[in-house]
Amino acid sequence: MTTTTRFTTERRPLLARVGRGLRTPGGAIFVLLAILLVGLFLYNPSLGDPGQFMRFLGRTAPILIVALGQYFVIVSGEIDLSMAAIIAAQVVLAGNLIGQDASRILPVVLLMALLALVVGLLNGVLTTLFRVPSFIATLGTALVVSGITFYATGGAPSGNPVDSFREIGRGGIDKVPVFGFVPYSTIVLAVLVVLALVLMRRPFGRMLLAVGDNARMTALAGASVWWLRTRAFILSAFASTIAAIVLVGYAGVSPVVGQGYQFIAITAVILGGVVLGGGRGWVLSAIAAAFALEVLFSLLDFIGVQSTWRPAVQGVIILVALGVPLLRFTRRRSQTLRSNRPNK
Amino acid sequence: MKGKFVQKPRTKTMLFGVLGSLVLVLTACAPGSNTGTTPNTGTGSTASANPSFDQKTFDTENAQRTATFTGDPATPWLQYLPGAMVDASKTKLDHPGKVCFSNAALSNTWRQTGWITMQQQLKVLQSQGVISKLEARNAQDSDDTQVADIDYFINENNCDAYIIAPNSPKATAGAVERACATGKPVIIFDRGAGTDCETSFVHSVGGYAWGIDSASFIAANVKKGGHVVALRTAPGVDVFEQRWAAAQHIFEKAGLKVTDYLTGADPAKIKSTLSDEIAKGTVDAVWVDLGDQAVPAVEAFEDAGKPIPVVTGEDVLSYLRAWKAKGFKGFAPVYSAYQWRTALIAVGDLFQGKEIPKDWVLPQVPVPADKLDAAINANKGMPDGHYASFGGEDLPGYPTAWQKP
């Protein structure tokens, strides 16, 4: 622990880097995920079958996609509380407008994309140009969106859309080598994850991190802060919309679909080591954390914790999971910093 | 200085260590938690431990379930059980009366179906010159809003009668009593009002009967020791608690193993939960406390490629149609949606000086397999959220009024 180790520029061996990475919150989540998965397989050996596991991954896809969207917003230093409202609105829109007419799928999906664009833009502009804190701004748009949904449906939507539209959330490709069964939702998820990874390595992603770290510096460096953050909000709204399409397929239309997703997503993103103020965090860690949460909820199903007791158990586990790595990490960092101080 | 810095995080780590072990303790000691694969076995005192279970109400509703009702079975919304009647000589009006309706919510398809039936019934009573106007306020599932709504009506001081569909009995009792104090007739329907000042309480037999009907069907079709998954919408809502308390009691007596889940009626959660249960072991039956929950449950079995076991539902058409199309063993208990029109008819009778039952108990006839086709055929063209017990075939606007998107 000398100055040279901290500020060295040469790359360390891969194993050392991985080992070091696993001790950060963003890395520790993969260890937690592995432990939870082992628990899941122990309680439910049938999930060891690849097809079954892919089905499991498929049903968690919507929440993982939502976490992915939330990641962009949080890493840019903001927060998006409008996701559940967008999901509910899009689900109802799909149910009511597509109905039993398959030819309406394309126009309605375009309309849903338009809605996502408008809400994302609104969130972004309110937060950046009008300087409304994103906490309030997105809560406001959430209320507006759910208010309109409520008005349009009277509180209860009419019914499920045509089965061919629901295939994306229910169906999949059977008899795939190695995987067995591949739900379409896992393909959607995989494509989005790859896109997100690429995006974060491109100038947009780098600048987004910079904005989250220090918006003023980034602005002085000549970047358009408002447009960077607004694009993050638009990405988040699109992620909610894609999650909604998968959810309509998986579960069908209900005004409560997606309820609470934004909070699971925010928890996941933080659990994945993304700093709430923005500027630091890896997108894969956030997604792994969302998956870990879903595995945890499922594990509670298998263990058989009583229904009325479950929220408390979930809450405490999340608190501990959030607290332990963060504390360890900050302690290690502060020690390193101290030992780097001259003459001490 | 240095020592202080090092010490501090250690105490924090210890704190979290303690918290961590607390989690383990919590999980292990969670009431009714099981560390093996055996779910809640429902043995011994579970049913009597349910604070919502009331043996007296259970027995009453169990008897009323199969009782003979006064009146023509072709118009069940006018039928009632013999009992005390309300003297209507004082409530007779010589002009069409204005009715003020404080509605708990329109947030589910049962309420929406009933609300349409009520509005069509209103047209009849308006054309007869009995009711002039129905002013309705929707409390959107909020106790506070409903109390405010009722007080608004009282202050407005131009209601000739009140209809109140309470959100939660205890919370709205005070406001209902204030409405009674105005001296105008007060009709309560659906959930109780937590007070007995009302002129008449209109309801179909009740939640216990609903639970007895559906749970008895499962008990009759699943072998002793079989595994039932119970999907509960929300804890603490009296309608659901009553259905669940009765069902739990029946399951316990039948020696069935029951695992219950709180789903918030979220179809995604229902499907995930059931997928886990299917992966875990045999599911012999699924019991739901709300019809909307049944279809996602059925889909979970389909998606897992497993045969669909007994799945109970409700008389909502989405369930009836899925039941018919997929041919599993189903059963639809009913909470009669036509009570919405009965509430208005009760007011109309009072305005015309006709006596009505003090406790207006309406029949609650479930849909078993042999009446499934009839129920579906009678409701051709109706949306999925429509209820077979809507009771509006003779009203103006049938069927188009109920077919609105």
Question: Tags for this entry?
Answer:
heterodimer, A: 344 residues, mainly alpha, two-stranded antiparallel ribbon, 73% helix, B: 405 residues, alpha/beta, Rossmann fold, 2 domains, six-stranded parallel β-sheet, five-stranded parallel β-sheet
Radius of gyration of chain B: 24 Å
The major β-sheet of chain A equals: 2 strands, antiparallel
Query: Ends of chain A: how far apart?
Result: 13 Å
Mean pLDDT of chain A: 87
Major beta sheet of chain B, specifics?
A: 6 strands, parallel
Helix count, DSSP H or I runs of 4 or more residues of chain A: 15
CATH superfamily of the largest domain in chain B: Response regulator
The total of beta strands of chain A comes to: 2
How would you write the strand order of the largest sheet of chain A?
1-2
Strand percentage of chain B lies at 5-15%
Number of domains of chain B: 2
CATH class of the largest domain in chain B: Alpha Beta
Please name the two chains that share the biggest interface, counting residues whose Cβ lies under 8 Å from a Cβ on the partner chain: A-B, 57 and 63 residues
Determine the mean pLDDT of chain B.
87
Order of helices and strands of chain A: HHHHHHHHEEHHHHHHH
Q: How much helix is in the residues of chain A?
A: over 70%
Would you report the number of β strands of chain B? 13
String of helices and strands of chain B: HHHEEHEHEHEEHEHEHEHEHEHEEH
Identify the overall geometry of chain A.
Answer: globular
Q: Which geometry of chain B do the CA atoms define?
A: globular
